[in-house]
Amino acid sequence: MERARFEPTWPFLCVLIGLFVLSALSPRAWQRAMEDRPTGPTLATAAMLSPEEEEPDPLPDEGLDVTLLASSPLPAAEAEWTVAEKTPLEVAVEPIGRFEFVEPAPKLASRVVELPAAEPEPPGPVLPSRGGAVPKPDQHAPESEWLPLPALVGPMAMAAGAAFDPAVLPVRRPKADPPESDGREPSGTWPEPESFYRMLDELAWDCQTGPWAREVARLVRALGRAVDGRSPQFETILADLNELGNSADKLAVRLTDRALATRLLRAQHAFGRRLDLWQRAVRPGKPLSGGWTLAGRTSDQRLTAVDLLERLEKYESTGLNRDAQPLAEICRLLDGSAGKANQTFNRRLQTHYRNANLRIAATGILLNELIPEREPERMRVSDTVLGRPVYGRSTNQSEVLLRLIPDPERLRMELEVEGLFSSQTTSLAGPATFYSNSKAAYRAWREMELGTWGIHIWPTRVAVNNNTWLRSWETNFDGVPLVGALAHSVARNQHERNRPEAEREVEWKVASRVKRQFDEESQERLEKLSDLLEQRLFAPLERMSLEPVTVSSETTEERIVTRLRLATDDQLGSSTPRPEAPTDSLLSVQAHQSAINNVFEQLDLDGNTFTLAELRRHLAERLNRPEMAENAGDADGEQDDVTITFADRDAVNVRLDEGQVRITLAVAELTASARRWSDFQVRVFYRPEVEGRTVRLVRDEVIHLIGQLNLRSQIALRGIFSKTFHKDRHWVITPESLETDARFSGTAITQLALDDGWVGFALGPDPSDSEIARR
Q1: How far apart are CA 360 and CA 342, in angstroms?
Q2: Per residue in 81-99, pLDDT tens?
Q3: Domain 574-763 CATH class label
Q4: Hey, which residues does 446 pair with through a beta bridge?
Q5: Within 10 A of 132 (CB to CB), how many other CB atoms are there?
Q6: What are the domain boundaries of the chain?
Q7: Helical pair 194-204 and 305-318, crossing angle rounded to 10 deg
């Protein structure tokens, strides 16, 4: 009998005792390490909150750990910080003890430094400005709440070729009493663009982009103070901000790190859309409580500038549909209001936040590749020409082409067939028999225009050019002397006289035949295409009250490009720059996450309750995809008892960023096996995976559960959703024909980008296939 394996426990006890001893001795070891450290101020000593502050600022999304260095209340801080060059531990700790909390230094760009009045101002930007150096805040503007750190922390070294002086890391100034009122009405509070500051944070720590990012953040804060204080320096600061925005292009060109250049241009775009609206919404010297009077559905509504800016920043921070609706409502009200100024502002607002969220471009080369080749058509000839019987055989060789018609505003193209009838015929004319060859070259075409309303087709036009030559002829009198030669000559002369008329009749008959055949074939194919678009695209969108709106369309000699907005009147479109497709792409598609989220919002999931089988059937019906319902219910039946009630708003939200697809489900209640959980979110991450010309989404990372859930609930819910979003169940997002159809051979996926809210897909020539590259 095999002995039971004995596992001693004393090694583990020794390890635990050792850890306990180390933890007890660690304060003394820490003190010795502090005494041996190089002297000088540190980030920890510099990034402290004043005890006069009631509570620290909310942490940013990514989270910063707040470290407690002193547990007992200590005296308030002095006006300045000084650290001796070689400070013993007691002296180094003394200024720390004057504060209750210590937090890591806030990120650079979102905490821009404003020096106190007693110290000289830092040098302004080198860029020329209308007011010279950066102006001082207006005397009525609130004092900056940010203090400079010790000199060791800043300023940072300038990048080569940088045009701006760097700022230093900041620390929050103790809150001062509000300034005395000067008798003017309050102007409202300038909403800080925190999401924009987070973008600048990513740039502020780089030596090449840091000076630009810090200077932009500093001037934006100065702009907010000028607005709140109704300072006349508002326009001067706007001018300097415009100069900074324009300089980002030149800085991006000098960057060798393309990822860094992309982040810079993305920040420039976020800065540009805000700056455009700031200078249109805020009137110099006027309070933010001013605004517009808009005609509402029931009564007039008052929209203030601060309301508009707060809604903008709220949506910029969350990207959720519930925060998009108030902004879309403003666009709708402005669109229905009178006044040139309102209409102009509405166009700018819609350009920035209701832009196209779907772009499709296809080249004429690819479209022609998709047209099937036509085999030569051989047929017997039995007809009459000029009332005389004609018989023989004929061969029809044709090719169908799609030609693009350049148009700056429409998608126009021409479906064309070019062919050649080659015939060998015999015709009878009384006692004479003629043997002829003919070649009838023809061209038939019909113009088409594509739009969100379908396909508009113009009538077919045909052009034919027939050429007939006499191969030989004979008469019934060829064997009779003298008469045979005369009959032979007369037959030839009559044939030549009738030849022009005969050719016109042949051309007319060829044209009629070609037109009839071309109309039948093209109509059949176009009807199939129209039915496919209607079933898979337009009907589901109509059922969801989502009507695609064409933002712009263009046809060049090489490709067609259309930009669409997929949104209702209460939804927004794209607001970020889309990824640029490779120049040699045959097909490119860019879709913004707003289009996806708008579709999810119209699926009637918010606030509704489903079993998993019912949910699949509901989605299959709404999307007009009956094949989805075939898999209703879990294969092993283990989840038949799961019932889910979605949250009232944003039941499903999709974010596309940093190469991932992030799907968030907001659940109001979920029941399974007589257990119930409420008010939580499920977050799942997918990454794209390319194999050949197939793109699939593969689950990445573990499933995240967000909410007040204990460990037992976490385990149970993770088991449920691990089956729903099974790690081995991949989502193929490209059509199967892209991989299997021989017409796509020689092509490859040349772009697959998920970033800044966009997914960019491009199909281009396979670099290893020289034939498709040559074509």
Answers
A1: 32
A2: 333 344 444 444 444 344 3
A3: alpha beta
A4: 415
A5: 9
A6: 11-102, 146-175+186-353, 363-537, 574-763
A7: 50
